[in-house]
Amino acid sequence: MKKIEAIIRKSKFEDVKEALHNVEVNFFSYWDVTGVGNEKEGHVYRGISYSTSEIQRRFLSIVVNDDFVDRTIDAILKSAATDKVGDGKIFITPVDEAYRIRTGEKGGLSLK
Question: Cα 93 to the chain's mean position, in Å?
Fold first, then answer.
């Protein structure tokens, strides 16, 4: 099992959610986060300068069986990309064990 954490643009969340459902990843957690990025320049819109160093993002936490890792990553990469600075990051870490609290099932069975 792997834990996939993705930080994406809030504006791409619905696209990413749909892409994940299309590859049968139907459960994940998410929350809004603010981060500091590498971009130091601001943007000007209608004469007002906006800082882009502190950016609103959405953080997704997804745990999948090993055979779902590649399709999950591909779905996020394709649906979250705008080809602009600040599209986000994906992190993958191993998960040693998982349990379903209601039934006590463990391992891959707990994810179904």
Answer: 13
Structure tokens at 23: 């590859």
CATH architecture of 2-111: 2-Layer Sandwich (3.30)
Task: Please tell me the distance from the alpha carbon of residue 79 to that of residue 94, in angstroms, as a whole number.
Answer: 24
Predicted TM-score (pTM) of the model is 0.83
**Separation between Cα atoms, residue 102 and residue 74, nearest integer Å:** 31
CA distance linking residue 64 with residue 105, whole number of Å: 15
Residue-wise pLDDT for 19-63, tens only, equals 999 999 999 999 999 877 666 555 666 666 666 556 789 999 999
